[in-house]
Specification:
Strands 1, 2, 5, 6, 7 and 8 form a six-stranded parallel sheet that branches. The protein has a two-stranded antiparallel sheet with strand order 3-4. It has a single domain, classed as Rossmann fold (3-Layer(aba) Sandwich), CATH 3.40.50.360. The relative contact order is 0.20. β5, α3 and β6 form a beta-alpha-beta unit. α1 packs across α5. The radius of gyration is 14 Å and the shape is globular. The chain is α/β, with parallel strands linked by helices and 155 residues long. The protein starts with a strand and ends with a helix. The protein has five helices and eight strands; from the N terminus they run βαββαββαβαββα. The structure holds flavin mononucleotide (FMN). The site of flavin mononucleotide has 21 residues, from α1, α2 and β6.
């Protein structure tokens, strides 16, 4: 299938594994969002910074991942669940581009909270897109689970 982009942010690489699996199964292009200032791998330090950024709707500068998306018709957008919503680098990507007429498919990894508000928050930023049901994975991704979900949504 052509013109598919899988874009994601991942701190501890769990979301990256899911993104890799989706890319392998769809043949889409993979793109990692890299913020200028990396988040700490120490949970408490990261949590403090992230809470503050989310409360302000802060969009960090991306040093990679914000290249044009014109050639893509379908964009899978992935984030860890951070306090029930998307990680700030994903908000930067959503605010930077125009998704009019594109198909958007959210995915996330989480520690028990599922999507939280992630699907709603992505849909809110892409009001002129077709949004398909996403996948939320707690921990390790099962290729079969991804396969069944992709089949269900037509990919
Ligand atoms: C700052 C921070 C906030 C988090 N908030 C939540 C949350 O609200 N709900 C949840 O289920 N998991 C939460 N988690 C757990 C992550 O969503 C989970 O570990 C995820 O798979 C990490 O993805 P990554 O390895 O791609 O960074 C949080 C993790 C961090 C670091």
């Amino acid at each position: 299938m052509d013109n598919i982009l899988i874009v994601y942010y991942s701190l501890f690489k769990t979301t990256e594994s899911l993104a890799l699996e989706i890319a392998a199964q769809t043949g889409g292009d993979l793109r990692e969002l890299v913020p200028e200032k990396r988040y700490s791998f120490d949970y408490n330090t990261a949590a403090k910074e992230v809470r503050n950024q989310i409360s302000r709707g802060f969009c960090p500068k991306l040093i990679s991942g914000n290249e044009p998306i014109d050639c893509y018709k379908t964009i899978f957008i992935g984030s860890p669940n951070w306090f029930k919503t998307i990680a700030p680098p994903v908000l930067s990507f959503l605010r930077y581009h125009d998704f009019t007429g594109k198909t958007i498919i959210p995915f996330c990894t989480h520690g028990g909270g599922g999507f939280g508000q992630i699907e709603n928050d992505i849909a809110k930023e892409c009001p002129k897109s077709r949004i398909l049901p996403g996948i939320a994975v707690n921990g390790t991704v099962s290729p079969d689970e991804v396969k069944n979900w992709l089949k269900r949504i037509g990919y």
